[in-house]
Amino acid sequence: MRALLLLVPALAAAALVTRDADRDLKQKDPHWVEGRNTIVQMFEWKFSDIAAECERFLAPAGYAGVQTSPVNECPDMKNNNPSRPWWERYQPMSYKIVGRSGTEQEFADMVRRCNNVGVRIYIDVVFNHMTGNVQDPIGYGGDTADPQNKYYPAVPYTSENFHATCDIGSNYQDASVVRNCELTGLHDLDQSQPYVREKIIEFLNSLVSHGVAGFRVDAAKHMWPADLEYIYSQVDDLSTEFFPSNSRPFVYQEVIDHGGEPIHSYDYTSFGVSTEFKYGSMLSDCFKGNNDIHWLKNWGTGWGLLDSSSALAFIDNHDTQRDGDVLTYKTPKLYKMAVAFMLSWPYGITRITSSYAFTNRDVGPPADSDGNILDVTINSDNTCGNGWVCEHRWRQVSNMVGFRNTVAGTAVENWWDNGKQQIAFSRGNSGFMAFNDQYNTDFKETLQTGLPQGVYCDLASGSLYNGSCSGKSVTVNSDGTAYIEILDSEQDGFLAISSASKQS
């Protein structure tokens, strides 16, 4: 594109730049159906289970989208690692859609069924690298490769399509090393090569043709921004079967940036969204009591975070659950508070992690003795069985997705705090939140809620069901004030009411 601009008149060049900028901006649109919010990372779920969950729970609860695990063919690790670790999916052998989650036919069925109920699908795509030196790998589609010689005939890639072998190790102060060397021994593709770009674009176009809404780009930090910008620009518009004409794929990129390195998340935000890893670590630190939550009054860019429209916000993901110091399902009360704050605060494109139980870093999803992923079963209390945690189904989480839908477009008002670990605020005249994160202390205050007079059901302890509250209720007076109580002994450390939870 830059070479072409040298050959055209200035006016035409300006028009081309404008059109490119418009396309880049469109790549920040997640294409959510109106009245929906939040992506769920359904980590290691089968395609058939995702399709069923879109229909039976996600759409009715107001969720907007699903992020799948990588769908490309990867090695079946049973001969190399009988535990079938989750990270085998992040070692591509080909760009065929086949793996532990199902076949390409099952994938297409999932995308169609979820789109039909207004839930968008985003694919975790891996094209920074191929496999590491797996011994005699056989892919889930039956393909073979020679990783030691960087030969992947199912693409095909040869050694000429990769950067020279070098190890990143701990050298994250050199951007060239980070982007040209191997991440944990995974053979690093050279995305500057036209042939490599062509193969990646073909893969992304195959996903778009099935009706996906966009991509989570794995290891984007390890690729040059100019290469990524070009690749995205050549991907087809979204399918007009499910999206308006000229819709661009939503792109959100994994860029781990906690500061102190030469590569920054904002290096990638002119042509897509970046994952804001500081978001989860900072909020977790606050709700763990290491930093008072009263400081959250200016949460967002005031804390050095990305611009809201360029940020994918989350508390945890599959990596940070295992490697970081963020809150997870294993500390449920604090975790629910952090997620509730995320969903109640007007910042970013939000994502929830829906995981499975694990006891060590590498363990794969619940599976039978042959390595087949177990079905996600649903218990009578709406939770999941068979080893699946399903945080997205927790009442405190799914009700807060509904809260976020209700208060969309409103501002934070009526902030209150006790100077420590108790805060409260309203979202215009549509919702009110209170948090008690102060150890061994009760929250008992009469506060301005911003809401009209009436009785409201607390969305943390219960729901509004058939005109009654299944949990606590809050009475708002004619002047908008209400007595708010969150006892230290209660299961939940927050309270949420909204115009949609009004009983009378």
What's the short story on this structure?
With 504 residues, the protein is an alpha/beta fold. It has helices spanning 2-5, 10-26, 47-61, 104-116, 175-180, 194-209, 225-233, 277-287, 320-323, 332-344, 395-407, and strands spanning 37-42, 63-68, 120-125, 214-217, 250-253, 273-275, 311-313, 349-354, 412-417, 422-427, 431-436, 443-448, 454-457, 464-465, 468-469, 473-476, 481-486, 494-498.
Question: Can you characterise this structure?
Answer:
With 504 residues, the protein is of the alpha/beta class. 24% of the residues lie in helices and 17% in strands. The chain is built from 11 helices and 18 strands. Strand 4, helix 7 and strand 5 (250-253) form a beta-alpha-beta unit. Helix 8 (277-287) packs across helix 10. The longest helix has 17 residues, at 10-26. The radius of gyration is 24 Å and the shape is globular. The N and C termini lie far apart (61 Å). Mean pLDDT is 94; it is low at 1-19.
